[in-house]
Design brief:
The chain is of the alpha+beta class. Helix content is 22%, strand content 43%. It contains six helices and 18 strands. The mean pLDDT is 97.
């Protein structure tokens, strides 16, 4: 069996930046264990698999360790593949996922994604979080998947070197850290070692939580964001009711074939 494989850098305009996602178009679903094995072999934050569903597609995402409910950068990469290569006459595409219907549309050189908001609520300071991050955040919030740790400035977020084992022991698999940005509205990093991702380069799903927080704090609905991982990535975010709109670019890096 030969399976097409594309590797696309998401939330960046250049290769070697943003978050690399593997994308595999399928005629029909492979066994779950096969898709998980491919994701582990690819060893990227996520591998996306999608199959036709009428004019739409069904879409699933796997980290090297597990299937996940929501992934932004691999959805952006899949949308870029469909709209840029597989169906270049189309302006938009819809994906049916475990988090509902997600839409991706073209807007000039950028791709626009419509995702569900995942707002966080304040929780008491937690010594386990402070120990895992190596310093105490100024505020701690919790969403359905992630903790959101807020720091006073960008330098604190850049300097963090979390204890990965301690992060794995927390009761949330994901850890978002954020602060006001020097050149953008806010910056962030994202850690999820329990999901097989020690640090994610750029995390669209985390911005489903970051956007409501910063909209409320900054009292503005259009936000510029930068994830300050080693690779780095940029996106614009907007809160529309219970939805978050994210805009970003994508760069095609690799095209090949998996032989099974």
């Amino acid at each position: 069996m030969n399976i097409p494989l594309f590797q696309i850098d998401a939330f960046t305009s250049r290769v070697f930046g943003g978050n690399p996602a593997a994308v595999c178009p399928l005629a029909a679903w492979l066994p779950d264990e096969t898709m998980q094995a491919i994701a582990a072999e690819n060893n990227l934050s996520e591998t996306a698999f999608f199959v036709p569903r009428g004019e739409d597609y069904d879409l699933r995402w796997f980290t090297p360790a597990t299937e996940v409910d929501l992934c932004g950068h691999a959805t952006l990469a899949t949308g870029a593949l469909v709209l840029g290569r597989l169906a270049p006459d189309r302006r938009s595409v819809r994906f049916h996922t475990r988090s509902g219907v997600l839409a991706v549309a073209r807007e000039g050189e950028r791709f626009v994604m419509d995702f569900p908001a995942r707002p966080a609520t304040s929780v008491p300071a937690d010594a386990r979080v402070t120990a895992a991050l190596g310093r105490a955040p100024s505020a701690l919030l919790s969403a359905e998947r992630d903790y959101l740790a807020v720091f006073a400035d960008e330098g604190e977020v850049r300097a963090l070197a979390p204890d990965q084992a301690a992060l794995m022991a927390l009761d949330r698999p994901g850890m978002i850290v954020t602060a006001p940005g020097r050149e953008v509205d806010f910056v962030s990093r994202f850690f999820a070692p329990r999901m097989g991702v020690p640090e994610d380069p750029v995390t669209g799903s985390a911005h489903c939580t970051l956007t409501p927080y910063w909209v409320e704090r900054l009292k503005k609905h259009m936000l510029s964001a930068r994830q300050i991982s080693a690779r780095g990535g940029e996106l614009d975010c907007e809160l529309k009711g219970e939805r978050v709109v994210m805009k970003g670019r994508a760069a095609f890096y690799l095209e090949g074939t998996i032989h099974l």
